[in-house]
Amino acid sequence: MQKDPKKNRTDLVADEAILKLKELVKHESICHLCTNLSHLPIDTRPMSSQEVDDDGAIWFMTSKKTQQITEIQNDNKVQLFYSNTSNYEFLSVFGSASISTDRAKIKKLWTPLAKSWFTKGSDDPDITLIKVVPENTYYWDTKSSKMVSLVKMLVSTVTGKSPDDGVEAKLNVKAKVPAKKKVQPVKKTAVKKTKAPVKTRK
User: Fold this and answer.
1) What homologous superfamily does CATH list for 12-172?
2) How far lies 200's CA from each of 37, 145, 161, 197, in Å?
3) pLDDT for the residue numbered 118
């Protein structure tokens, strides 16, 4: 028995989408960064995510001499794949990449682990940042721990029913939630009171 795909669908937009993206892309999470998408097979390599900023952009640190820098300069469309098998969390991000050598941003994203690659420290002129702005993002998530999920899967093979254990949805980090229109108070117009004519006796 197939489960209703709409039942576990929770699409998120704007701030809610960014918060979920930050939850899924934890600091220094490893993903596969795919470039040169118009050619097959596509080029891919593991990359460590440095940050998801408040606008939903994902940042990476690399060397300016790497192949991905050249490929992004030729075609800035990229695809990211994250897989957290310990929690059964999966994320696919399609977006536009840009190259940055902003020294202040490099210092902000610098970690002791980065010194293994850049021995001159955060001032190493070889350091280059890749910023990926998501355009189409999709995630799969489970409600239970890995052990509980495995048990539910085993039960489903016996009962024939799909386990109601997952959430899948789109994350639209660029969508803007429309602001509520302010209702202008109705101005009360003063009603002029007219005096009744005074009757005089003849």
Assistant:
1) Electron Transport, Fmn-binding Protein; Chain A (2.30.110.10)
2) 98, 95, 95, 9
3) 93
Q: Determine whether 173 is exposed, middle or buried from the number of CB atoms within 10 Å of its CB (0-12, 13-18, 19+).
A: buried
Q: Which residues contact 145 (CB under 8 A, 6 or more apart)?
A: 87
Contact between residue 132 and residue 110 where contact means Cβ atoms under 8 Å apart:
no
169 pLDDT more than 60 = yes
**Bridge partners for 66 per DSSP:** none
Ranges of H-type helices in the chain: 14-24, 67-74, 103-109, 146-159
pLDDT higher than threshold 70 for residue 201: no
Return the higher-pLDDT residue of 172 and 38: 38
**Which tokens belong to 15?**
């701030």
Instruction: Kindly report, residue by residue over 29-56, the tens digit of the pLDDT.
Output: 899 999 999 999 989 999 999 999 999 9
Q: Given the DSSP bridges, would you call strands 58-63 and 77-84 parallel, antiparallel or unpaired? A: unpaired
3-state secondary structure of 68: helix
What whole-number distance in Å separates Cα of residue 55 and Cα of residue 33? 20
Position 159 scores a pLDDT of: 46
The whole-angstrom separation of Cα 41 and Cα 22 is 30
